[in-house]
Here is the input.
Amino acid sequence: MRGATLFRGAVVLPSEVLEDGAVLCVNGRIEAVGRRNEVRGDAEIVDAAGGFVAPGYVDIHTHGGDGADFMDGTAEAVRTACRAHARHGTTTIFPTTTTGSPAQLEAMLSTCAEVQRARDGARIAGVHLYGPFFAEDKVGCHSISGRRDPDPAEYRGYFDTGLVRIATCAAELPGAESYYREAAARGCLVTCGHSNASWAEMARAFEAGMRHVDHFWCAMSSIPSVSERLGTPMQGSMAEFVLMQEEMSTEVIADGQHLAPQLLEFAYRMIGPRRLCLVTDSSRALDMPPGEYRFGPKEDGEIFTSDGRVGFQADRLASSVTGMDRMVRNMAELTSASVADAVRMASLTPAERAGIAAEAGSLEPGKRADVLVMSRELEVERVFAGGVDP
Here is the structure.
């Protein structure tokens, strides 16, 4: 068969691992999945040699890597970051904005569109419009000077590009509900992040179309923080709303630095692999030596320090410096998550939430041949995007 590859190994499916499995890919698409003796074809054989054959990872929240930030506003920066994430098993990526000026966001969107057409490294499925619509007291490591309330005259221009597929806004901001309704009407995954929202504000956001919360426990409200803002009686926060509302999803940064193992276990068991996504939230310091870097645009982004394990601004965490492969390994090693669930949270669950599960996120016939060959320790050994080396 022309352009055919037969992968053999322990095939990671959405809910189980098929130990003696095979995946046949032809012309960039998955044609068959099953046991080794059931799937045959005149194809180049790629044997995992006792390891895993898994779907390529899908990262819905990431800022850069290998010295480049998507907000640098150049095609080379976008390509560099996409290539870096592909090395860690991410075959589908949603470049994520920080706070910044309208001109900086427009440049980021323009260069992502340019690289999306040419494709280099992880495939750009869309952009995550993350900053700038954050709460002033929850900007985290982002530049506060680039933060603002949502304005339809601004964000409709971003949506009109057709590139924004995930859209974030703090629920308590004036104009947030209009933003959520607009984003939902455009088919985006609508999220609340960098927010000190109360339960009541989350409920109104939910009615307007919000269905996801960014990096659980990080730069988000808690019962004490809402009480400090709104007084007594104490009210529920974003965390309680997500735990209570089954239609909501969220994400964790499982780099071993942002959240302790017991919090990763809590999130996995209470929220579950069908609502919990793994994200890198990685900065330009991914795959770079320890040192000082800028978060966001290279000309005026906030300074942070990487120690090689995580980013810091003084005593505050500043994004991760870790790829998706490490996130998956940590979930498998530090929690009770099975290999199938750990991989699912980095592939099919984010694909479903972002609306691209018909094309990516699992090893199923008809989908793109985004395939990882991994060791038994979940170390990525080979990456195929659309059946070829990205």
In short: The radius of gyration is 20 Å. DSSP finds eleven helices and 21 strands in the chain. The longest helix spans residues 102-118. The chain has a mean pLDDT of 97.
